[in-house]
Amino acid sequence: MRLVRARHAGHEFEARLEGTLLVPTDGSPKLPLHRAELLAPVQQGKIVCIGLNYFEHARELGMTVPEEPQIFFKPSSAVIGPGESIILPKASSRVDFEGELAVVIGRACRRLRPEEVPEHVLGLCCANDVTARDLQRRDGLYARAKGFDTFAPLGPWIETAYPAPDDVALQTRVNGNVRQKSRTRDMIWSPWQLVAFISECMTLLPGDVILTGTPPGIGPLAPGDRVEVSIDGVGTLSNTVAAETALKQ
């Protein structure tokens, strides 16, 4: 089952996607998908991210493979949905795409074992951990580089009938050209291991999202680009790229 958030005639609602029909959870009439705008499938909650979870990605950045998962956060204000534009901020001269598998929490949990994780997961979706690479290197930290508005595209839906996440194919394309191509079996820590690890230090709540790391092949985005993150059995998240316009006085 695919769970979505959508907008139609100024009204935002949650729905199931059944073929090409949206079935609102509030009992409203069904609506053809093409008549609505899909929004980010989650609106609030923690976005917990993992850095350097593929051996080859660590090597391409010239960084040491960590002994434990590296946790950082993105603000909920960074979230955008499918079809929305990633805005390149004036503060950065290089903004990179990072296609990732995202895990959406469905039940509150704490101190889980990896085998207990699935019963607390709502589903999977596609994500793009957009990063101002020059600011990341300058700051030595992740908060500013990864926290700009529009730097957390999610979607296009939450797939609840998801494939086993420890071996699914992930691909990122920019303007139709394949830039990242990998499988989650190449992760250092599997998605369920990551959720269990994070739950050791913090309570995970319904609607929280775990970004599980990006494979090698990251690269810069430019105004006018279209970036697509595809995960087999989950879906394809597509976003355009635009330059930041002059700030209003």
UniProtKB/TrEMBL annotation:
GO terms for biological process: carboxylic acid metabolic process. The keyword Membrane does not apply. The keyword Isomerase applies. One of its GO terms (molecular function) is metal ion binding. Its EC number is 5.3.3.10. Signal peptide: none annotated. Keywords: Isomerase, Metal-binding. It is an enzyme of class 5 (isomerase). Residues 46-241 form the Fumarylacetoacetase-like C-terminal domain. Belongs to the FAH family. This is 5-carboxymethyl-2-hydroxymuconateDelta-isomerase. It comes from Desulfohalobium retbaense (strain ATCC 49708 / DSM 5692 / JCM 16813 / HR100).
